[in-house]
Design brief:
alpha+beta; 4-stranded antiparallel β-sheet; 8 strands; elongated; 42% helix; Endonuclease I-creI
Length: 255
């Protein structure tokens, strides 16, 4: 026998988009019991409200958090959406705990109600938010890999990115980019000296996602170049001193 609070908690997790199997495993309750409660207790909404599902769709209230999360999603995120299993997952390198916290914070600020969990794997942490409404908020979702399908922003997303371009760039860099230190040597008065300089690299196989990145850099006045490897233009470099300074001010290294 389970008390009413336990039953309501289990149903609340299901209402957030969690699968019956995951709730059963987490709470130590049989799947059959949860199924019975779904039909016997006072009906609960199985999903939290969504600003995009209303009769008159609206945009998320927190533009900055959404722009950052959009960048993370286009880089290292994907959505699972199938019967009784709906969630957004962003994979973060485990050596950057600040990035893991930032990903979870952005999810909570965009959609406060869904349950969020972290799954530690070898060298990385998966941050998951459980609700079917991520499909509404991230319409770039679709079958297959992102670089195998067209990726464009809808007008309402363009508005958000237009008002918070640095948050979008920050999300892209935090997912598929990095700040590194390069070095070179020059002859000075007959003596070879070593010089070091920082630069930002963004790498993504999708032509569309790279274009979203470089178009936004252009609007921000950040100079960039292609850094082709093996004939593939997958890497975008920002190396000019003034542009690196801008990136340092608004993006900075991952931590």
């Amino acid at each position: 026998m389970y008390d009413l609070d336990t039953r309501k908690l289990a149903l609340a997790l299901v209402a957030q988009g969690r699968s019956l199997n995951s709730v059963s495993k987490e709470m130590g309750i049989s799947r059959h019991a949860i199924t019975c409660w779904l039909s016997r207790l006072e009906p609960l909404s199985r999903t939290p409200p969504c600003v995009r599902c209303q009769e008159t769709p609206e945009t998320p209230e927190d533009f900055a958090a959404y722009a950052y999360l959009l960048g993370l999603y286009l880089g290292d995120g994907y959505i699972i959406s199938k019967p009784r299993q709906h969630y957004l997952m962003v994979t973060c390198t485990a050596s950057w705990p600040g990035l893991v916290d930032a990903a979870e914070d952005a999810m909570r600020r965009v959609l406060p109600e869904p349950n969020i969990s972290r799954l530690q794997r070898a060298g990385c942490v998966d941050v998951k938010s459980y609700t079917k409404h991520w499909v509404c908020l991230l319409p770039q979702h679709g079958p297959g890999k992102k670089h195998e399908r067209t990726i464009t922003l809808e007008p309402w997303q363009q508005e958000i990115v237009g008002t918070h371009p640095w948050e979008f760039i920050r999300g892209l860099i935090h997912s598929d980019g990095c700040r590194i230190t390069n070095w070179t040597t020059h002859m000075v008065s007959g003596e070879r000296k070593r010089y070091e300089y920082p630069r930002y690299i963004f790498t993504n196989v999708s032509n569309d996602i790279r274009l979203l990145y470089t178009d936004t850099l252009d609007k921000l006045g950040v100079a960039w170049t292609h850094c082709t490897r093996n004939g593939n233009p997958y890497n975008i470099s920002v190396a000019r001193k003034a542009s690196v300074a801008l990136m340092d001010t608004h993006v900075g290294p991952k931590h």
